[in-house]
Every structure is written in C-alpha cells, then in structure tokens.
Amino acid sequence: MKILLINGPNLNLLGKREKGIYGEMSFETYLNELVTKFQTVDIEYYQSNVEGELINKLHEVGFSYDGIVINAGAYTHTSVALRDAIAGINTPVVEVHISNILTRENFRHESIIGPACKGSIMGFGLDSYRLGIESFLRN
C-alpha cells in the first residue's frame, strides 16, 4: 500500500509555531514514528506553502497511490482549486487537522475541501495523521 501525506502552508513550522495549538514535535520527528509503526505501508511525505504545488502533487499521484492524507492548512477554508483537484483524482483523500477546527475562529469552521474527501479527522493532535492512515488500512 502506498500513501502520501501532504501538509500545506505553515505546517513546515510544526514544533516551532503556536505550540499551544500544534504541539512541540516537528512533523519530521512524527513522520519517523509513523514509518516505524506502519512498516508494511510505503509512506511518502510532501509539504508546500504554495497552493499550485499542492495541486500539482495531487495530480501527480492521484491516479496511482492507494491513499492521500492531507492537512491543507489555511487552504482548507479558502481553496476551491484544491477542492477541485481532490475531486478530479481517483485516489481517495482523507482530510486531517491537528486542532479541532470547529472550536477555533469562525472562519476556520468551514472546510471547502472536506466534501471532496473520503472523510475528515480533526482534533487529535498529530495522531490525526495516524488515524488517517489507519482509515485506509481498514477498507
């Protein structure tokens, strides 16, 4: 099984930014834990702060991978283009968020990409990514 984890804008700063919301662990450290836990899964990781690069990556892998776990960051709430890219590919996508976006600022309550995804997981910290991966292993 081949799964791509995608992080959008500002998630390259995990472990450094807003630690009260996002925690103190870098994503690279957490990624190592995931790779160790899911040794039978080929896990790849991609991060970009640029909307078009995220769309290009979805197009690149969206017809050949078994699953995509995406934390689109702020693009979750603003990007029709990212939503359309998810809807346009065959690979199922699970939306994840470290925080519970429904308990944050009002502008974060709506996910534009969510309706194009297989499902959404939020509020479990970095463990949201593990739950996203496990959702593909259960089907």
Give a written overview of the molecule.
The chain has 139 residues and is of the alpha/beta class. It has a single domain (2-137), classed as Rossmann fold, CATH 3.40.50.9100. The protein has five helices and five strands. It has helices spanning 19-22, 27-37, 51-61, 80-87, 127-137; strands spanning 2-7, 42-47, 67-71, 93-97, 119-122. A five-stranded parallel beta sheet has the order 2-1-3-4-5, with helices on both faces. Helix 3 (51-61) runs parallel beside helix 4 (80-87). The longest helix is centred in the N-terminal third of the chain and has 11 residues, at 27-37. The model has no long low-confidence stretch (mean pLDDT 92).
Task: Show the helix and strand layout.
Layout lengths: L1 E6 L11 H4 L4 H11 L4 E6 L3 H11 L5 E5 L8 H8 L5 E5 L21 E4 L4 H11 L2
Parallel strand pairs: 1-2, 1-3, 3-4, 4-5
Adjacency order of strands in the biggest sheet: 2-1-3-4-5
Query: Could you give a short account of the major beta sheet?
Result: 5 strands, parallel
CATH topology heading? Rossmann fold
CATH superfamily: Dehydroquinase, class II
Overall body shape = globular
Order of helices and strands: EHHEHEHEEH
| CA(first)-CA(last) distance | 12 Å
Tell me the domain tally: 1
Task: Work out the radius of gyration.
Answer: 14 Å
Question: Which residue ranges are poorly predicted, with pLDDT under 50 across at least 5 consecutive positions?
Answer: none
Number of strands: 5
Number of helices: 5
Helix content: 25-40%
Q: Overall pLDDT, averaged? A: 92
Strand content: 15-25%
